[in-house]
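Q: I'm writing up a methods section and want to include an example of the input and output format. Could you take the sequence below and give the corresponding predicted structure tokens, formatted cleanly so I can copy it straight into the document?
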Amino acid sequence: RAGRHPLSFENLITVDSHEDHLKLVDHLVKNRRPAVVLAASGMAAGGRIVNYLKAMIEDPRHDVLFVGYQAAGTPGQQIQKYGPRHGYVELDGKQYTIRAQVSSISGYSAHAGQDDLINFVRRMRKLPGEVRLVHGDNDAKHTLRERLLAMAAAKGQPMQVTIGSAH
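A: Here is the clean output for your methods example:
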């Protein structure tokens, strides 16, 4: 089942309703068994991630892993900044001491700047033959296109960079 559907495995549980989500949060807290929870962060400012964090962030057995950008002033950024020092984060008006381990993986954010994106591509073992720029304003996409093409040319490698419509 892996490959085309890497998140399709026997023990995967998907949660559709809010009621089922709250039951799962309660179950995870009560049974204390290892689990991996995948939840969109929304900078930890709203949505289901907030319930998981409120239930688990004060427990040192847990880990919080961010794979996306967390803007200044958001709970996600507070967790990244103060988590290693066991500071606190405010969620729904209440302070929670951060005892969970906090880690971040960079390079997967849709909010990366051009320098970050260029460096992300530059660090690849082999440059991609094709890059599609589909997010951002047109001027920025055209500038990024030129920078990518110049980098590929300097390395003597072919690269096609296409620009999609603005989002």
